[in-house]
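FW: tagging you since you asked about this chain on Friday. Here's the raw sequence from the shared folder, copied in full. Didn't touch anything.
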Amino acid sequence: MSGFERIMNDWLSKQITEAKNPRRRELLEKGLGHGTQEFLRNIWYPAIGNLNHLYPEWEVRDYGNRYRYLDLAYMPGGSKGCIEIHGYRSHARDIEAWRFKDLCMKQAYLTLDGWMFLPVAYLSIIDEPEVCKQLVLSFAGKFISTAIDHSLGWIDTESLRFARGIMRPFTSVELASHLQRSDRQARRILDKLVSMNMLVVINDKQRYRNYQLLTDSVKAYSNGHP
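HL: got it, structure written out here
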């Protein structure tokens, strides 16, 4: 059994033990769906490094007083994020009209109730894992700002939060605007975070450098493009 498998099994066992709702406990005891497992194994865990604040088969009640079960709820500090894994057959080609309308209504209810919704296609997990990892980093960045190193000050931490929340490489000018600091100050912050292996330079031209949070795909690009 791999290290991740042990972590996931321990996490799921804890969820079952702590589940207060019999229906949710029954769903958890049946095991997670294949798409959810692949998402956790190949996308979430490599990108985030843990399964903290994730709750599978989370039960909510919509405005129509119906119970809904979310593939994964992400709730750090009481926030409300929903991740749904969509298979091709069940959600696209062969879906019945009533089911399609119900899925749209489910997303509408969740959005109106303050949930941030992240739909993930199973085919994207298989075909575009690095894109999915960046989506996950940006999604998690909407909820939390984590100082990877306790020695970091608030401005460094906020710069990392900005990097987590943006879906593409960014410039020092963009960070300076976000922090309301000068471009020179932003460059100093970025150089520090690069030296700490938290960010990576994508384009190394002195005046037009682009930066991005360090992920596997970015690391591979950086190594291949000195």
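FW: Residues 3-141 form one domain.
HL: agreed, and The radius of gyration is 20 Å.
FW: great, closing this out.
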